[in-house]
Amino acid sequence: MQHGAQAxxxxxxxxxxxxxxxxxxxxxxxxxxxxxxxxxSKTKFPYYRFAARPVExxxxxxxxxxxxxxxxxxxxxxxxxxxxxxxVLVEWANELPQQHFLPIDYRLHGAEASNPHVRIVSHLHGAxxxxxxxxxxxxxxxxxKSRLYQYPNQQxxxxxxxxxxxxxxxxxxxxxxxFGATFLRDSFEDKLNLPxxxxxxxxxxxxxxxxxxxxxxxxxxxxxxxxxxxxLFGDAILVNGKLFPYLEVESHKYRLRILNASNARxxxxxxxxxxxFQQIGTDQGLLPxxxxxxRVALAPGERAxxxxxxxxxxxxxIVMMNDAFTVMQFRVSAxxxxxxxxxxxxxxxxxxxxxxxxxxxxxxxxxxxxxxxGEPVQLxxxxxxxHDPITENPGxxxxxxxxxxxxxxxxxxxxxxxxxxxxxxxxxxxxxxYLTKKEFLYLGPRVPPEPWEAGWKDTVRADSKMVTRIIxxxxxxxxxxxxxxxxxxHEDNEMMRPYEIVKx
Length: 504
Ligand code: C2O
Ligand code: CU
Ligand code: CU
Known about the structure:
This protein has four helices and 32 strands. By secondary structure, the chain is mostly beta strands. Strands 11, 12, 13, 14, 16, 18, 19 and 21 form an eight-stranded mixed β-sheet that branches. Strands 1-15-23-22-17-20 form a six-stranded mixed β-sheet, with no helix packed on it. Strands 2, 3, 4, 6 and 8 form a five-stranded mixed β-sheet that branches.
């Protein structure tokens, strides 16, 4: 049992359900609703409208339809397909009811009872966008309202994802289903001839707790007026909205685009037959070369781009696991398939940013505030709260090193909006010495990033009792953005800070 959370006495034990009785759903691809110009110019861009509405969706053959909120007919919402340097406009609309169906904690900043209960704001995770299109957590809007955002797409091919970011209730809105995949493609990637079309499959993975009636359950802490829990872990691991789905595949290479869309769960996916994944990309696009891995590791918010070759597994039924949990099954056809796709030995070069380019190093602690029985009551970044004055204010196009100093027992996945970065290293340190003397007593060498995370990232694991260093060039638009822990329960309870990219 997680600390503070009430025992989920009334949830369904999903291991009692039969496995592999539903096919894996693939979200529909969004179609533009025409062309539109922004007020400031005459140029027209493809225009999309994404409306958040209540939906009922079957997550398993033997369960009644589950109530969700989504930007489309099912969860995840429709996939947004875009190309580099081709801007698009998206109108995000709130067509939800006036009441939330998950437990709001009115003590959290931004979620006060005086605020409307149903508020949304959409963020495109991974996108380099003008600040007024980034989905600032306080720019939420109520049922009946919408916002028009522009995505300039001046960045490399990658998998992004859109999700809610409303202050103080983000964990509930995402849990309710307000997210979906986005793919940015470019001609460099096209030329690699990676598996595509029917051979490219998005796998959006999110865990939920389910009631015996088949409905979403979000647990609350023991005290009724203090419902916030420090982390949500569900035993129902959904892939594209289904529990234990199966996918029929040919004996061919497949490109799997995996996203961890969970509130708090970290995943380690592996194939029961020992099949190797060739990891070809991370959050912000392609790696320099494929990295063979037996386990794909993903923290909340992270993405993995992998190629799996089923050609030696004809007729097999392969189960993909997460640690000890069953996730899904691949049913490989018995017949031979001709495969003209490639897995090149070299992908996209990722030139290392030299440390000497950094004009500043920021030391930033990740802090947990506990009550007298050792339960977390709040999580902070650098001991500051959301409404404290802005302290991170890099200049446009300057490079900085951010050192995340993590004295807590948890790994925190730290995400910066609107920029991409590289991981420099992680190093064990002695928290007490740092806390009392502000001196580093290192307990081991600097460990370089794992080969599969040594590309362009936007979310990084800041491991427990380690100092994690990243190097970031703030080559985005000037304005106010956020950085935060992507464990949504932490983010909603002060583990998020505004930062400002300033004109220099
Ligand atoms: Cu996935 Cu602030 O974002
Ligand atoms: Cu983001
Ligand atoms: Cu955290």
